[in-house]
Amino acid sequence: MPTNIDAFSRDLLESIFRYGTGLNKPRDEEGPFLLKASGPSEEEDYFYSSDFQVAVSSVCRRWRAIALDDPVLWNTLHFRAPSDIRKARLFLSRTIPKNTATMGLNAMGFPEYPTQNLLDILILTVAPQEYVQGENLSQAQLAEIFSILTPETLRWRTFHLQVQDNDCRLCARRALTQDCGPAPNLETLQLYHFEDYEDAEDLWNIIHRPPRMCFRNIAPNLKHVSLIGVNLPWLSSPYLGELESLELALHPERIRPPYECWEMMLRSPNLRSLSILYSGPKQADEFDVSLTWPTADSGRRITLEHLEYLKLADLDSDYLVNTLELTHIPNLQKLELDLIEED
C-alpha cells in the first residue's frame, strides 16, 4: 500500500491547502479592521501573501487541479503594487461559481453565493510624493482595480481601502457611489483617507463636498464599519444602525455625524466594539441650534448593553465628558484612553 504523498486523498489535500493558505491571513483576534487609525504604518503584517497556494498549484497536475478547483485559495485579493492587479485578474477567475443556475435567491432577490465564493479585498495606495512607477499604486492603478472589482460587488465580503491624496479619493468616491451596485454580502467596510494638508484651503477642498450614498444604500449584512477621515450621508445610511464594531476617526467638526445619527449608531443592538479617535457627534453652534445634544437628565441616555471594548483617543476632555454623560455602558471589559495632554 503506497504511503507517500501521492496516496493522500483529495479531501485531505484540500484541507492542507486551505490550512496553508490561511496561515498568512490576518487573524480574527486582531479585529475586523486591517488599517490602523493612527496613520499609515510601515508594518505590513496585515498584507496577505499568496505564495503558498501559487506554490502548491505548481507541484503536479493533480495538485494543480485540486487547487484551481477550490475558490477558498483565491478569494483574498490584496493590492499594493501593479503586479497584484495582474494576479487579481487570475485569482478572480478562479472564484467564480461554476454553476450559477443552481443558486437560489435571498429575501431581497439577490443570488445566494456560497461562502467560499465571496471576496476579501484590501487596496493600499500611496501619497503622490511616495509613488514609484511599477512599485506601488496611485490614481491610475486604482481606477483599473475598481474596473475589475465593481462588477463583482455582489460578492464582496470585506473591503478595506486606503487613499492618501485627493485624486485617489475622488476615484474611490466615484466607484463606490456610481459604479458599485448593491453589496448584500458585505460584512466589513473600512474607508481610510489620510493626507498631510499643506494649508486650510486644501482641507476645505476635501470636506466641502457632501458625501454620497455607497452601494445604492443596500448593505443589509454590514456588521463592521471603520471610517477614518471619511464621512457618509449619516442620516440616510440605514445600515449604520445594525453594527457590531464601529470605528470613527480623524473627522473635523464639519463632517462629524449629527447627534441623531450618533445615537442611532450607538443603539445598534449588537454593538460590541467602539473606537473614537478625534471624532464623535457634531456640536451645535449659533448657526444651527438643531444640532443641540439632549441633556443628561432628558431620559435619552444611550445604553450600550453589549459593548465590551471602548477606545477613546485625541478628544478634548470637556467634549469627552459631555459625550459619556449621555451613555451607560454596564458590561464594558476593556477601556483604552489616549487623550490630548490630559490626565
Automatic annotation (TrEMBL):
<protein>
    <recommendedName>
        <fullName>F-box domain-containing protein</fullName>
    </recommendedName>
</protein>
<dbReference type="InterPro" id="IPR001810">
    <property type="entry name" value="F-box_dom"/>
</dbReference>
<dbReference type="InterPro" id="IPR036047">
    <property type="entry name" value="F-box-like_dom_sf"/>
</dbReference>
<dbReference type="Pfam" id="PF12937">
    <property type="entry name" value="F-box-like"/>
</dbReference>
<feature type="domain" description="F-box">
    <location>
        <begin position="54"/>
        <end position="80"/>
    </location>
</feature>
